[in-house]
Amino acid sequence: MFSVGLTGGIASGKTTISNLFSKLGVAVIDTDIISRNLLEPGELAFDQVCAHFGASIVNADGKIDRVRLREIVFNNPAEKSWLETMLHPLIYQRSHDAIVTNAGADYVLVVVPLLFETNFQSLVDRILVVDCPAEQQIERLVKRDQIDESLAQKMLQQQLSNAERVARAHDTIDNRSADVDLESQVAALHRRYLQLSGA
Ligand code: ATP
Question: Minimal CB count within 10 Å: which of 72, 92, 95, 112?
Fold first, then answer.
């Protein structure tokens, strides 16, 4: 099963781009959704987070307060490390299972925000990186999530730089401004991946 990993910095445009692949009929696996599902009540990660952070991490609706959790981990490297060590093997396994489940597709696109940081390279055959400068990411992040710029900057500092990601990519997609033609870039990559997958 041929699989392509789509990665890029926070708010670089991964979801926007994966939606375009999806419109072309490509099977998309989003590790953010897998991660969110793992934190739902009844899942293994839910119990572990509650045991670790205490009952106050749960909202009145019985679900984990994801905004609070994000604030805690982005301001505390030890807590971030604890959460990642617990979650990443579970996410890897679920992503692998989802790739196998899509065995009938021409190829699958797996969206993995921290692909290099978490050593998820072995999950996929090819890596596609969204190329987007830090200033643009901060602008998009502040606008989309209504957070202040200092938190946005802190989030970016905890990730690889764009240049480091691009250096390790097989393919890149240019999302450096609102003027780029994402659709034709995605269409060209799609043709390439169909060839590479032997579809
Ligand atoms: P995250 O890392 O938080 O999951 P992401 O990489 O999936 O984010 P998106 O949510 O796709 O990024 O994009 C971030 C924001 O920037 C969104 O509000 C999106 O609509 C906007 N955006 C992305 N690409 C463009 C573009 N080419 N032109 C204008 N706005 C864009």
Answer: 72
Strand partners, 174: 131
Q: What is the total residue count of the chain?
A: 199
Of 27, 26, 4, nearest to 130 by C-alpha is: 4
pTM here?
0.92
pLDDT given for residue 141 in this prediction: 93
Name the residue of 22, 140, 177 to mutate for ligand 1: max ligand atoms within 8 A of Cβ.
140
CATH topology of domain 3-197: Rossmann fold (3.40.50)
CA 115 to chain centre: 8
Q: What is the mean pLDDT of each run of 10 residues along the chain (199 residues)?
A: 96 96 97 95 94 94 93 91 95 96 95 93 97 95 93 90 96 91 96 94
Q: What is the pLDDT of residue 67?
A: 87
Task: Give the residue whose CA is nearest to atom 11 of ligand 1.
Answer: 13
d(CA 44, CA 49): 9
Taking CA atoms only, the protein residue closest to ligand 1 atom 26 is 178
**Does ligand 1 lie within 6 Å of residue 113's CB atom?**
yes
> Which atom of ligand 1 is the closest one to the Cα of 132?
24
From the CA atom positions of the chain, what is the Rg in Å? 17
- 53 token code pair: 């952070």
Cα(139) to centroid of ligand 1, in Å?
Answer: 10
46 Cα: distance to centroid of ligand 1 (angstroms): 28
**Amino acid 19: pLDDT:** 97
